[in-house]
Amino acid sequence: MSKSKFYVVWTGQQPGVYATWAECKAQVDGFPGARYKSFESRSAAEAAYAEGAKPYIRSGSAGNAKKAGNPKPGAKPAGDIDYNSISVDVGTRGNPGPVEYKGVDTATGEVIFSHAPIAKGTNNLGEFLAIVHALAHIQKEGSDKSVYSDSVNAMKWVKQRRVSSTLPRDQSTEEIWTLVDRAVQWLETHPYSTKIMKWETRDWGEIKADYGRK
Q: What is the rounded average pLDDT of the residues 87-100?
């Protein structure tokens, strides 16, 4: 089972330390400029609350709510975001090129897992690996989190349990194809009920795991 966490709300409806995500979410959901973060123990959370948000929350980072404004027609409000989730994204330098990925806590921006750069791959293959890694992590932890990705192709490949990429299989791409084949095998042998959802970049800004390389 996943470990218990404690949540600090520095800026929200009622600042304080909370023992569940549901209690924390009630304080920050839809609150302009909300500042909050999870900790592994109550003592760490209480110390952080007393110290203040500045050492723990980077300016403009996750844990600060998107500023309120006039939504675009048909836009999905930030209140629709499921913060009990892992957001994944890929960092690339060239496509194809070196690929790395990570998964973060959507609520706090805390990195949950990351994979070191793979010598040569594509953005979509990296996104696929990130989603499967998140699914495996959630299943291993016995968590009820969902997964966010901003890649429609990768989400489709996960659903179909196969990839459709034009990246050649050769010595330069052996590393990523080995990982992709392993991920496909995991999907074929591990039924899952985790919800995989599209991150609405147009309405919500960049996904919380974004590498900032655009």
A: 91
